[in-house]
Amino acid sequence: MDPTESDRIIPATTNHTRYQSIGPTGPEEQASPVQHKVGAVALVAMAVLLFSGVVVCGLTATDDRPFFNNGTHAFAPTVIFISLDGTVNQDLEFHITPVLSAMADNGVRAEYMTPSFPPITFPNHWSLVTGLYPEAHGIVGNYFYDANLNDSFYYKSPDKSWDSKWWGGEPIWITAVQQNKKSGVIMWPGCSTEINGVRPSYSVAFHDHVTADDKVDQVFDWIDLPLEDRPQFIGMYVPEVDQSGHANGPYANEASHFSLHLADQSIGRLLDGLKQRNLTDIVNVIVVSDHGMSATDSSRLIYYDDVLTQQELDLIWTIEAFPMLGIRPRLDVDQDKAVETLYQAFRRLYDSLETPHFKVYKKQDFPDRFHFRDNVRIPPLLVLPDPGWNLITHKDYRGGSPYQPRGVHGYDNLSPESRAIFVAQGPNFPKGKTATPFWNVELYNVMSRILNLKPASNNSTLNGILDISE
Ligand SMILES: [Zn+2]
User: 7-295+415-467, which class in CATH?
Assistant: First the structure.
């Protein structure tokens, strides 16, 4: 982490032409897609429904050419993986993200990427780096109770949330280290946790008030390390777009757009710095979000205490996975009976409304397509509102001022407002192409392919090859 100046790659600020790439520089130079078996175990094949088309041109594997050279230094295959938390796929159409648009022209943009359910931050950041659905990796919400552990996870409490007992699956930065490659991770949820007794080679724990530009500087510090110390996987987490979306609402709102524009500019700084180092065609940059966001409104509220009796309300111990009501009954009552009582109560609420705008399920009846059933951490009763709707009590909101938060996510992951972004460029991506929509659990295998890693078991179905159209 502290190389001498001579070991650093000094950006060419005056004479770019002295750099001559002698490694593979573009997809046209690479072999056609290599259909090697990566040994991944697809635990659940539901996503096939979304990818019924033939897998055509995809990523090119690099295992026959493991090294690049920017003219002065050798580079192993490298991925910089950036999450702009809460960026709505549709927001890339508002002409406030010129850098991401240019990236799409120079690489691949997905029509959209489907987040895993529930489309909230911790579950999806862990799905992005493990290739597992939340029910499989166990981070089923930002906060949840585990009856087997008799303990609760709370994302804002590092003392608790960093304990490895919560985190199932194997994030790509651990896969890399276990296969003798370096990884560096900046503030990504879970990056401060030891997994399988291993940590990323370098990591920066989450802190508020660190700008995206500061994080880009950290990325350059790592990229400028000597080959033997340089991470091949770099993860970087940017929370500002999500924070602004919650406060101001997601769409057509200047404040939210401003934070997205700033994030876009920071990615521009990153791309400029890579260009100065003659690394544009050597380093892959992938920009994603974990989920989209829906606008709330005081006209889209359902007061469930209008129908549930106080006796019924008193049965509720915790409500998890907001804006869904993931309801857990008090521990001192008969669980099955309490779940049945509360289920019937929400059925009564449903029947009382002309257009209910929510659905209630017992956990075992939650539809297969959510992949959100098979884990003790999932609450036994799930009340899912329609996008943009909120189930609340009169104590939660009394009216008079605009309902807060103005933007909320965590609804049906197939709703258009939940869709996440995917934009990527670099030697493993064709230029100016569009990827067919895919689920975010595919990216672990995609990155494993680029980095020549043998992936751990995961839920992907595409074997690391995205369906990319002309
Ligand atoms: Zn998020």
Answer: alpha beta
